[in-house]
Amino acid sequence: MSTGFDRAWHERPHAPEPGTVLCRVDAVPEASGRGLRFGDGKQAFEMILVRRGESVWGYVNQCPHFKVPVNARPDTFVNSEGLIMCAWHYAKFRLEDGHCIDGPCEGLALKPVPVQVDGASIRIGAA
Ligand code: FES
Q1: Binning pLDDT at 50, 70 and 90, where does residue 121 land?
Q2: Which domains does the chain have, with CATH numbers?
Q3: Relative to the CA of 64, which ligand 1 atom is closest?
């Protein structure tokens, strides 16, 4: 059975369509980020939203190290340095491009999911 790990984000099961409204901008705390899940079970599509001011970025919630979700607790993605941090082996990723700048997968990156701010809301952008 395919897990969808190596597929582009928009080819994965349950990936939201471009234009899908995800949440309000103010529902993404800068200090933690927010996780979203589409579908159920092992085929669910999980993504991360992180924000700095009016800028918002989206990523597939899958660490490039062991291909597992980066968080151990709900909606807990950003560390005190303002970086996305994997809860398992502490890889650190930049908000703005998802690149790992420290940790066991340094040089790799989270897979981006295009998002756009539309007024007070965040939508999925074009694939
Ligand atoms: S699984 Fe994320 S750093 Fe190891």
Answers
A1: very high
A2: 9-116 (2.102.10.10)
A3: 2
Residue to mutate, 93, 101, 105, ligand 1, most ligand atoms under 8 Å from C-beta = 105
- pLDDT at position 5 over 90: no
Distance from the alpha carbon of residue 19 to the mean position of ligand 1, in angstroms = 31
Report yes or no on whether pTM surpasses 0.90: yes
CB-CB neighbours of 84 under 10 Å: 24
Q: Whose CA is nearest to atom 4 of ligand 1?
A: 89
Distance 107 CA to ligand 1 centre (A): 13
Over residues 86-113, the pLDDT tens digits come to 999 999 999 999 999 999 999 999 999 9
Task: Give 93's contacts (C-beta < 8 A, 6+ positions apart).
Answer: 59, 70, 83, 84, 85, 86, 99, 100, 101, 109, 110
Dihedral over Cα of 70, 75, 78, 79: its sign: negative
What does pLDDT average to over the chain? 94
Q: Is 65 a pocket residue for ligand 1 (Cβ < 6 Å)?
A: yes
